[in-house]
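In this section we walk through a basic example: taking a raw amino acid sequence and producing a predicted 3D structure, encoded as discrete structure tokens. The instruction is simple. Fold the sequence below.
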Amino acid sequence: MKKTLGVADMACQHCVGRIEKALKAAGVTDYEIVLEAKEVRVAESQAALAASALSEAGYPCVPKD
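The resulting token sequence is shown next.
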């Protein structure tokens, strides 16, 4: 099951690259970045880890579901 994290500060492909790098560095393996919706969808079991990694990278997020 996926958890959706809203990332209001994600605006461009550069942001996507930084977010992807942060997620990989944190060990998050099951994710999808949707720039148009300003969302990161991650496996529910990795949601807390992903949220922490995003926050540390300067992209605070809010759970959407």
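Looking at the output, two observations stand out. The beta strands are 2-6, 31-34, 39-43, 62-63. The two ends are 11 Å apart (CA to CA). In the next section we compare this with other chains.
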